[in-house]
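DM from R.C. (forwarded with permission)

"hey, sorry to bug you on a friday — could you get me a structure for this? deadline for the figure draft is monday and I only need the backbone to look sensible"
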Amino acid sequence: MTFKDAFAVIEVPNAAYLVGDLFEESFGAAFPTPRVNCGLPIHTPPEYWHQFVALYRWPDGRFETVGFCNWIRFGPVYLKGGLCVRPGFYRRLPIDHFQECSGSGGVAQLMMEAGARKLNDCEAWFGYCGDRKAFLVGSRVGYRRLESPYLIAKWFKNVPETRQKELETLVAKIGAF
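My reply, with the result:
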């Protein structure tokens, strides 16, 4: 079995039962359960949420949740957050799977690519990123730094610069997400 055969990214309406422990370990915070009042100063009904989970099937047949990423629709854009990969996952992979996974950009990149195939009905994705390694992965899938601190964007359409700035200002008002 190849890494491609053993790895999958799925979307679920509420990934808490699959990812709660990974999210809490990664961020030291409670899992972002889809809900209207999620703590952001915007409307966030559950149907606006898109939670993607990366799963890996080990040679013994056991499945493990190895990654997570969350997108929330906000008007003409998505807010991407909560991106995390299980610590130590890469070290435990069989060498051929590690090489294949690494050659594909790694779990985080594969999750964002899966998200981009489905969540491309927007002008952009915005992320709030203060981690250098996370930004490097994001830049491989098209994210660019913006003037607002920690804010990054991946443009899905040919968006005029004035519109880009307008959307950046709108999203920056949200704060960390």
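R.C.: lifesaver. The first helix runs from residue 3 to 6.
me: no worries. The domain at 3-172 is CATH 3.40.630.30 (Aminopeptidase).
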